[in-house]
Amino acid sequence: MTLALFEGFGIEMEYMIVARDDLAIVSCCDALLREVAGEQVNEVEQGPLCWSNELALHVVELKTNGPVPRIAAAHDAFVAGIAAVNHRLASHGAMLLPTAMHPSMDPATARLWPHDGKPIYNTYDRVFGTSGHGWVNLQSTHLNLPFRGDDEFGRLHAAIRATLPLLPALAASSPVCDGRRQPELDHRLQVYLGNQRRIPSIIGQVVPEPVWTRADYEREILQPMYRDIAPFDPDGELQDEWLNSRGAIARFDRDAIEIRVLDLQEHPGADLAVTDLVAWVVAMLCHEQHVSQAELRALATEPLARLLVEAVRTADATVIEHAPLLRALGVAAPRLSARELWRELAARRHAAADADPRLAAALQPILRHGCLARRIADALGEAPSPAAITEVYRQLASCLERGAAFVPA
Length: 409
What we know:
With about 400 residues, the chain is of the alpha+beta class. It contains 16 helices and 12 strands. Helix content is about 45%, strand content about 15%. Strands 1, 2, 3, 4, 5, 6, 9 and 10 form an 8-stranded antiparallel sheet that branches. A two-stranded antiparallel sheet has the order 7-8. Helix 5 (about 150-165) crosses helix 9 (about 270-285) and helix 9 crosses helix 14 (about 355-370). The longest helix has 19 residues, at about 270-285.
């Protein structure tokens, strides 16, 4: 049965598989799934979660096995799932590593998934060349929000468009790549922006176009994308809505919009705290708490896209002075930092009757000390040595196993 707005939530988290001794990538996701299922599969159900493959063999995805009624309800399942995966990986000398990018891997050494679905992955590789960081070194948390019919789709799409540019300020966790500090705190999104430059209609401006019905979405977003890739994809392997690489994509096959710009955090409690706050902000906008749908839908794509690009670079230090957006969020100040904005929104969310204390506590390190990328950068300094990078990422792997926040001394 199709769910209405905010009747359910789907959460997906992607993790790197790395060696316990030196944190090198380990391409064994297929072996992991085969050991659990007893045969080679792309996905295996494990109670409230599913474990599944991604493009690269050193990445495994844990996701809710269907929508959950409250985001907080998924906490224990993800904690148990991570422990179970790590237990299985121990026999391979491997473990899960959080954050959105491996800090030092050579993407040319990554291996693509070679089993069911291989024609799709091979087509991606042939058309775009998937040996770069933007394909095999980017781990994110996806939030799926349901809708029922065009009215709810339009409300949800308008609210998500407005929220997207602010998300790197809350969730950036990728300041290190190729063994060095990068200019952007959300380097994952920086490389993601260039993934489809060969066919720009696939990604647009990342912030989706202002369309409010399925028919308009098909005409304005999906059909141009399918048309433009057709000369490169004569067998039609990529002619599907998942080809869309915008920061939020409509999944009409399951009547949901999937938000894709959230970097993976250091432990699942932090990911769920982030997605809970994001879902609450989106709901506030959907329900016209501060401005009408007409005002929300009038937000132009270009200024939102510029704000997103700046947030990719400076994350929680980004200055927000987009007056219509601040008005939509119920913020009186004409100008404030993204961290100040998220603190104000979080205070309102955690004062609500349905707020979960565990998720509120898990969000505090972000609100007090900055996004995870800021904390990683502070721990490393401007020119960290390879040994220093390895040590910090060992600590992050420990945070994942312990369910603890990363807070540098």
